[in-house]
Amino acid sequence: MKKHSARVAPLSACNSPVLTLTKVKGEERPRENVVGSTADGQAANGGAPGAEPATGRWRLRCCIKVTAVQFDAPFTLTWFATTWNCLFFPLYYIGHLCKSPERQTPRQRFRECCRFFGDDGLTAKVFFTKVAPFGLLWILTNYLYLQALRKINTTDVSALFCCNKAFVFLLSWIVLRDRFMGVRIVAAIFAIAGIVMMTYADGFHSHSVMGITFVVASASMSALYKVLFKMVLGSAKFGEAALFLTIVGGANFVFISFVPVILYFTHVEYFGSLEDIPWLYLCGVAGLLFAFNILVNFGIAITYPTLISLGIVLSVPVNAMVDLYTCEIHFNAVRLIAVLIICLGFLMLLLPEDWDQCFIQLHAKLQSKREEPAEEEAGPGSSLNWSRRARPSMSTFTH
Predict the structure, then answer these.
(1) How far is the C-alpha of 83 from the C-alpha of 286, rounded, in Å?
(2) Distance, CA of 307 to CA of 234 (rounded, Å)
(3) Which end of the chain has fewer CB atoms within 10 angstroms, the N or the C?
(4) How many whole angstroms separate alpha carbon 124 and alpha carbon 56?
(5) Helix axes 132-151, 74-83, angle to 10 degrees
(6) 198 contacts 338 by C-beta, under 8 angstroms
(7) What is the pLDDT of residue 159?
(8) Nearest residue to 342 (alpha-carbon basis) of 151, 138, 150, 167
(9) 93: closest CA among 251, 240, 236?
């Protein structure tokens, strides 16, 4: 799910105290965290050495600023991107025709995948009890993520969203009665400590606190989505997962299309005429989100799940480099420690359940390799006694 998905959105704003006013149908409405300002641009273009790179940076800020002014509608963007989920099952069926020796018609394949919902298939009761709640959680996850991007920088958002894996463990431990693991409890504590330190790094200002609250809520919705999916629907095959996401996208288009219209006419969200909407950026965000969900849901077929999870952690330094270039953000020591603690907790959650046994086996193998050269250096008279002392340790390890 992502998220994770919106971290490349051009609407993401930097952590700047600058407030600008945008005319919206005769009224002034505050715009928070718009990237860059005229004063910043003039300071960057002051004729000092290196003015050419600063000019390029100022142009990039203006580009993002104009995009944000033209399209200030996070829920509409969420709705637009979620609608692209309708493409999942058609793309899956094309792959089915290319690979499967037994080619089925779209209706046959659809009916077979519908067995995932039960013996009766996809009924109205199943839709409203087993599909609609997950669609709502999907919308909330992405919407809250975009709201967080409007308040704080993308590096903090991507780092804080890594806490969703800790929330998944806690919910699985409480709801699904998963195995207790001390190392994962420590990882969850690291995640919570990182959240507190991230809030402290900004001085508990209401602006940053709201952004952190949004991203933590988004991570919580993502964790709840994963745990409830496992509890209600179990595990899904590729075709079943593709059908499920297609139904979520279709339901989003049919049942939630009226919400962006209401938000537009009530001036809660703003976007200009169809000609002024930055369709290239919107389609780029939706396409990247769609590609992200394909890699996350179907990448397991070609690689390990751990490698996919590592991609989420790697997004943190990538976003940090982008923020340094576009926003000139200065990371203080507290923020850096908070990010490192959260990432460390995320990596600890990737450890397998039998990680302690694997560590013991690795330690024993390394110990045996150290003893072999000592045995070769020993004389003929002492070789027998050494081998006798080494055997019990190996036999104890194997048991």
Answers:
(1) 9
(2) 23
(3) C
(4) 54
(5) 140
(6) yes
(7) 86
(8) 167
(9) 240
- Find tokens 């039960």 and name the residue: 118
Tokens matching residue 186: 């420590």
- CA 387 vs CA 217, 266, 361, 366: distances in Å: 60, 83, 20, 17
CA-nearest of 195, 164, 203, 194 to 15 is: 203
Query: CB-based contacts of 363: which residues, under 8 Å, 6+ apart?
Result: none
Of 248, 286, 8, which is closest to residue 134 (Cα–Cα)? 248
> Which tens digit of pLDDT belongs to each residue from 186-208?
888 888 888 888 877 777 666 78
Residue 225 near residue 138, CB atoms below 8 Å: yes
The candidate with the shortest Cα–Cα distance to 342, out of 175, 211, 196, is 196
Structure tokens at 33: 């965290």
Task: Name the helix (H) or strand (E) containing 343.
Answer: helix 333-349
- What ranges in 1-123 are assigned the alpha helix state H? 38-44, 51-70, 74-83, 88-99, 106-114
24 backbone dihedrals φ, ψ, rounded to 5°: -130, 100
Q: Which residues pair with 22 in a beta bridge?
A: 29
DSSP string of 165-187?
A: HHHHHHHHHHTS-PPP-HHHHHH
DSSP 3-state of 20:
strand
- Tokens at 113, concatenated: 């995948």
Euclidean distance between CA atoms 101 and 116, whole angstroms: 22
28: left (phi over 0), alpha (psi -120 to 50) or beta: beta
Let me know: does 36 contact 176? Beta carbons within 8 Å: no
Give DSSP secondary structure letters for 259-317.
Answer: HHHHHHHTTSSEE--TTTS-HHHHHHHHHHHHHHHHHHHHGGGTS-HHHHHHHHHHHHH
What integer best gives the mean pLDDT of the chain? 74
| pTM for the predicted model, two decimal places | 0.71
Cα atoms in the Cβ-side hemisphere of radius 13 Å centred on 133: 13
Q: Both tokens of residue 79?
A: 């709705």
Q: What pLDDT is attached to residue 144?
A: 94
CA atoms of 194 and 158, how far apart (whole Å):
13
CA distance 263 to 24: 13
Distance CA 308, CA 292 (A): 10
Task: Give the pair of three-digit tokens for residue 184.
Answer: 């994962």
User: Angle at CA 70, nearest 5°, toward 67 and 74?
Assistant: 85
The 3-state DSSP class for residue 18 equals coil
Looking at residue 351, what DSSP letter applies? S
